[in-house]
């Protein structure tokens, strides 16, 4: 799989890393590295990246967009009921 193949998959279609990995039959670790590289490449192109970060469903704490994978627990309430971050690609135009 090529990194550029992730663009049509994620274009206006928010997905988590686990969902992407299932779709393309790759390991989530590989997908995470490929996405980080793709994000650097997209800065110079006609596409932008949107990351909806993880949120604690117990206390509402919102993690930063730099976390691409679901954290293990909330730093505020120590709860484990967290949403997965969603990643999508959109046109800058």
Question: Can you offer a commentary on this structure?
Answer:
The chain has 93 residues and is of the alpha+beta class. The chain is built from 3 helices and 2 strands; from the N terminus they run αααββ. The protein has a two-stranded antiparallel sheet. The longest helix has 15 residues, at 28-42.
Q: Notable features of this structure?
A:
two-stranded antiparallel sheet; 93 residues; 2 strands; alpha+beta; single chain; 3 helices
Main sheet specs: 2 strands, antiparallel
Q: Give start-end ranges of low-pLDDT stretches.
A: none
Shape: globular
Strand content: 5-15%
Report how far the terminal alpha carbons are from each other.
27 Å
Give me the side-by-side strand order of the main sheet.
Answer: 1-2
Computed structural class: alpha+beta
Task: Summarize model confidence as the mean pLDDT.
Answer: 89
Proportion of residues in helical segments: 25-40%
Count of distinct strands: 2
How many individual helices? 3
Q: List the helices and strands in order.
A: HHHEE
| Rg on CA atoms, Å | 14 Å
